[in-house]
Amino acid sequence: MSDFKTVLLAIDLSEEAVQVANKAHSLAKNSGASLHVIHVIEPLSFAYGGDIPMDFSGIQDEIQKQAKSQLSTFSAKYDISADCQHIVIGRPETEIHAVAEELNADLVVVGSHGRHGLALLLGSTANGVLHGAGCDVLAVRVEDN
Ligand code: AMP
Predict the structure, then answer these.
(1) 30 CA distance to ligand 1 centroid (A)?
(2) pTM of the entire structure?
(3) How much distance in Å is there from the Cα of 53 to the middle of ligand 1?
(4) In the chain, what percentage of residues exceed pLDDT 70?
(5) For domain 6-141, which architecture applies?
């Protein structure tokens, strides 16, 4: 029995997310912790706002709708109820920290790629989550599909 009570799983909804989720799910189950899941949507305006003079709100709404539906389907496989599913808009590292704090999570689980040696052992998001986290962080090594 570990000390973890609330585990926050961060997923990017890619094919690799299942590798991260499998670890988080069994860890939460074995320690009797509640499992929450978060997906952060980066606003299109972050990437294109300054360069393309157009209104992104319609596309952004559609992206959010799709993400919500994908997260719900994904969560069902791990018995994560709707109130434990978090869709947030912003920068992944910042929002993952904020929700972890809100939930008083004692563990955040993220994926990390190890394909380019030690310097890039942690992907940029995993690295960002690790730095400044107020709780333990588990970086699950993901294999490229
Ligand atoms: P990356 O650094 O983008 O390769 O992502 C590494 C890990 O960070 C992923 O496996 C997820 O655990 C997490 N992550 C990346 N993007 C997001 C996102 N938009 N929302 C939630 N978690 C994310």
Answers:
(1) 24
(2) 0.91
(3) 28
(4) 87
(5) 3-Layer(aba) Sandwich (3.40)
